[in-house]
Design goal:
The protein is 19% helix and 40% strand. The chain is of the alpha+beta class.
């Protein structure tokens, strides 16, 4: 016997009379924070080239935020999941797929998009820079990699009767050849005996569209938190690499120098030696390693 609800309807009868258009529904976008690690041009051939963390941005070719820089992304189609939409956007913007991809967070602040009610299901992607083939989409005027700097400006901790509130302000600075974008992000941690919550807010913003400064900050913090406890950094590496190159990648993610001996002990079980060497002009040949998948 079919179950009936309080109005006496079976499930089939309920669905036949249901009117979805009576309820306001949001649009859903999949926005991509795509990181890579590139090499800074170095005039001195005897000096190893410095590495820098970069994020991919597109310059908007239409309203809203005409001319501002934004994360690559687009609206989720009716026949795909948010992950499939993210994978599609990744292929369209970089020409690659089957790379590291994980969901970051769903950003749903009221008014985050001036067009209509839009929720952003954001994703973090990590790409080896040697794979890239950039191409701007139909709604983009330009596409570029921006060097990332994300540094603490100040912090404050206020005690409460049952916990504390910690406020941290970070400066996000993104630089490309002819562009510099800046934002200040406030991260508020509220901790009590019964609950914990973290809130992000944009204090100031110069050059970034929508709330994408906040999404980028969230992605940087996710990457930094995971790099010490997982092998996530290897997704930014080519198949073969030197230990110095690997250490440089860790350092640009964490934005600090690491002791060579301690770092090599840390990654010893994560890598394996190969019989290949890299000849660098002005340097002794360096042994090449690969990721230990075991």
């Amino acid at each position: 016997m079919e179950k009936r609800d309080r109005d006496g309807l079976t499930e089939r009868e309920f669905l036949e009379q249901y009117r979805a258009d009576e309820y306001e529904r949001p649009s859903v976008a999949a926005d991509m924070v795509i990181f890579t690690v590139g090499e800074k041009e170095e005039g001195n051939y005897r000096k190893l080239p410095e590495k820098e963390l970069r994020v991919l941005l597109i310059q908007r070719g239409g309203h809203p935020f005409l001319g501002k820089w934004a994360l690559p992304g687009g609206f989720v189609r009716s026949d795909e999941t948010t992950e499939q939409a993210a994978e599609r956007e990744l292929r369209e913007e970089t020409g690659v797929d089957r790379v590291y991809l994980e969901q970051l967070y769903t950003f749903s602040d009221v008014g985050r998009d001036p067009r209509t009610w839009v929720m952003s299901c954001s994703y973090l992607a990590l790409i080896d820079s040697s794979q890239l083939q950039l191409q701007a989409g139909d709604d983009a005027a330009n596409t570029a990699w921006f060097k990332v700097a994300y540094r603490l400006l100040r912090e404050r901790k206020d005690m409460m009767e049952d916990g504390y509130v910690k406020t941290l302000e970070y400066e996000l600075r993104l630089t490309a050849e002819q562009e510099e974008l800046t934002a200040v992000i406030e991260r508020t941690e509220r901790m009590t005996e019964a609950s914990a919550a973290v809130h992000y807010a944009i204090v100031s913003n110069d050059g970034l569209a929508f709330d994408h400064a906040k999404i980028i900050a969230y992605a940087i913090e996710r990457l930094r938190n995971k790099v010490n406890d997982s092998s996530i950094a290897f997704h930014l590496m080519p198949k073969l690499f030197t230990l110095t190159e690997l250490q440089q990648v860790y350092e640009v993610i964490l934005d600090k120098e690491l002791l060579k001996a301690a770092f090599r002990r840390k990654v010893a079980e994560l890598v394996e030696e190969t019989d290949h060497y890299r000849d660098n002009a002005g340097h002794r040949p360096s042994r090449l390693y690969r990721r230990n998948l075991d």
